[in-house]
Amino acid sequence: MKLRDLRRSVASCALALAGAAALPSLVATVQAQQPGPYAKGDAQKGRAMVDKDCNACHTRQFGDKDRIYTRAERRVKTPAQLRAQVAFCNSQLGTGYFPEEEDDVAAWLDQRYYHFAP
Predict the structure, then answer these.
(1) Burial 80-95 (b: 16+ CB within 10 A, else e)
(2) Among positive and negative, which fits the CA dihedral 36, 99, 105, 58?
(3) What is the pTM (predicted TM-score) of this model?
(4) Where are the domains of the chain?
(5) Mean pLDDT of 88-94
(6) Are 38 and 102 in contact (CB under 8 A)?
(7) pLDDT of residue 21
(8) How far apart are CA 105 and CA 5, in angstroms?
């Protein structure tokens, strides 16, 4: 490899690394500008559905219906994960919620427990 080609390779790598270092802040900026996956959800409707269909199962599992959301090792760490977990529970319980109703549940859980940034 010629010295000139080597310098170009090193320069290209340096630019790539500089871009990679800036990537997390760029991703955070883009995410902050986008609405959450359940932004149109109605939290009050979701609260009623959680009270009706979710709390009994969570109490059986954890002894406290709130613990599933507040425990240190909880799985849900992003709005998308919350939305996916609500969809999973919907299918497991056979509640038959429509996607809009899943959004309502996710909106309530976010408002009550998670407080993800919009």
Answers:
(1) eebbbbbbebbeeeee
(2) negative
(3) 0.69
(4) 1-34, 43-114
(5) 93
(6) yes
(7) 54
(8) 57
